[in-house]
């Protein structure tokens, strides 16, 4: 819980820019009035709260990204239908209000990521089990240190590149850009460093797999905070942003 809590805190510090999906990623805000925009955002907020609460109470898997994207899409289409009906235009003009290209890319990205994660996860699990399932106590210790170093290097690269991509802190931006342009050097250094750490862990009889799970938990919590929490607050923040723009105008 402590490790996950630290990951959440770090993720909230580095999560930014994702509310652009709520602001103009799904629909074209320039075609709506201020009252329509506020109604649209309020609808999405209430719908998502009810949906996520009910799904969680049933123990069903949920995704804030999916609920936010399709909530915005449904609300924008609903408001678009009302506007088309009031203006007397044809239903074919409904597509004017929706950012169809962006919606399509987001949906393809969601479905593609699920498929890739499933098959790659199954493959890695299969390979790992070949090494460690049978006669575990007789396996050479260096196998656990090698695979542990590879796993933590992959997690470290994920956290440093993907996890920090939304940060606007100058030092973090510089570090992220350096890692992105020197990926091979970073991976080689990280792999060597974590392999040495794994060797020391073996000397002090630390369970390497528990260490991998803890670091994985930290990165997962960081990703959750940087993505899901930002998604969830993106809609009310976008509504507040629209209010500020309305006041300024």
Q: What's the SSE pattern?
A: HHHHHHHHH
Nearest-angstrom radius of gyration? 23 Å
Main beta sheet:
none
Query: Could you say which structural class the secondary elements and strand pairing correspond to?
Result: mainly alpha
How far is it from the N-terminal to the C-terminal residue, by CA? 46 Å
Principal-axis shape: elongated
Percent strand equals under 5%
Which descriptors would you attach to this protein?
249 residues; mainly alpha; 9 helices; 79% helix; 0% strand
Describe it.
Helices cover 79% and strands 0% of the residues. The chain is elongated. The model has no long low-confidence stretch (mean pLDDT 84). Helix 3 (34-57) runs antiparallel to helix 9 and helix 6 packs parallel to helix 9. The N and C termini lie far apart (46 Å). With 249 residues, the protein is mainly α.
